[in-house]
Amino acid sequence: REEGFELIVVTNQPDVARGWVSREAVDLVNHFVSEQLGIPDIRACFHTEHDKCECRKPNPGMILSAARDHDIDLASSF
Q: How much is the pTM?
């Protein structure tokens, strides 16, 4: 951030769909991490690999939506 980068986290959280952890617990952890590290956006896919969704990494759904929402030029990003 000090160098002008915007930090956004995208994460797969299939344990929610599997019933091993609640979405509320994941949201609490993500909120804590966001607050402690100053990360403005943490996006999570709660599907399993069997759901074949566009948001689950390695598919680009979460990255593309974050880029749209934050006006990020992906060609200049890493």
A: 0.84
